[in-house]
Design brief:
Helices cover 15% and strands 30% of the residues. It contains 5 helices and 14 strands. It is globular and about 70 Å long. The protein starts with 13 loop residues before the first strand and ends in a 7-residue tail after the last strand.
């Protein structure tokens, strides 16, 4: 149970804060705040008891507006497409789940994805409502994802990432350049670009660092080992592109005018291959490796 609404089909309720304002009813606020959701949809949700305040009291269509309060409700998506790839649980104990995520599957609900996410699938599969990711990898990236079984223990695992105590190793397929000398270290400053989901390198104090090695060369392509020291959004993709080594099947680096839709025949050739750390709760050394592999 989360603030008056239980997890439903693996999906936790969403939350919106009510600011100070003069809307006649809560319904009026919701329609203005979420223009893509019609009045009819909100009225149906209310009729079904799927919108409540932070005290668990149902929100009715005519309920007067009151600011400085939180509402909880369920998101709904019409005709959410099925992602035809499955994750595998590689490890499970009372504290930690380690999943091997396929390409194209988001880690958590956002945008057009709700049921078709790693988190919701695992909640339903394992019957664990409190399951929560410790970190994220891109939807387009395959490989290892850690999830905490208990929300109260999530910070213990996240602190490992903050303190850079997790050894993370990725693999990638990208062009081969014989004028670059490997291994090499890429350090740069990465900031948000336009549109918001893209990142770019800018002048200034570096806030990102990646160690890059060559594992094998085949013709004009190579398999690279990428070891990020920092964890900036899209860091590996940005660093490789800046070196003139855009990852095979990357749809946004280098930037394109319109990001193409998913084509399951061409997954991004980036894999979170292995991870090692000392478990903060058990003290045991942990080492995991993805069963996925990349193809030239």
């Amino acid at each position: 149970m989360t603030h008056g609404l239980p997890t439903r089909a693996g999906v936790s309720p969403s939350c919106v804060g009510l600011p100070a304002g003069h809307w006649p009813t809560i319904t009026d606020f919701l329609i203005e705040r979420f223009p893509a959701i019609s009045r009819e949809v909100w009225l149906q949700r209310m009729q079904d008891g799927l919108v409540v305040d932070e005290f668990g009291a149902a929100v009715t269509p005519a309920r007067a507006y009151r600011g400085h309060m939180r509402l909880y409700y369920y998101r709904a998506l019409d005709d959410e497409p099925r992602i035809p790839f499955e994750a595998t649980v590689l490890f499970q104990d009372e504290h930690l789940i380690v999943a091997d995520k396929p390409h194209f599957l988001p880690v958590t609900p956002s945008g057009h994805y709700l049921q078709e996410t790693l988190l919701v699938r695992l909640k339903n599969q394992l019957d664990m409502d409190d399951l929560i990711p410790v970190h994220r990898i891109d939807r387009e990236t395959a490989g290892l994802v850690l999830l905490s079984v208990r929300r109260s223990e999530r910070d213990a695992y996240q602190s490992l990432f903050r303190q850079r105590e997790v050894q993370k190793h990725y693999q990638a397929i990208a062009p081969w350049r014989d004028d670059l000398h490997f291994p090499l270290v890429r350090k740069s400053r990465i900031e948000e670009d336009e549109p918001f989901f893209r990142q770019r390198e800018v002048p200034g104090e570096p806030n990102s660092e990646t160690h890059i090695e060559v594992l094998e060369v085949k013709g004009d392509r190579a398999r690279y080992a990428l070891s990020p020291v920092t964890g900036k959004k899209h860091q590996l993709r940005v660093h490789m592109n800046a070196l003139g080594l855009p990852l095979l099947n990357d749809r946004i680096y280098p930037p394109v005018a319109v990001t193409p839709d998913d084509d399951y025949r061409y997954p991004l050739q980036l894999l979170a291959k292995s991870m090692a750390f000392t478990d903060p709760l058990t003290g045991q050394p942990r080492q995991f490796e993805s069963r996925f592999s990349l193809k030239f």
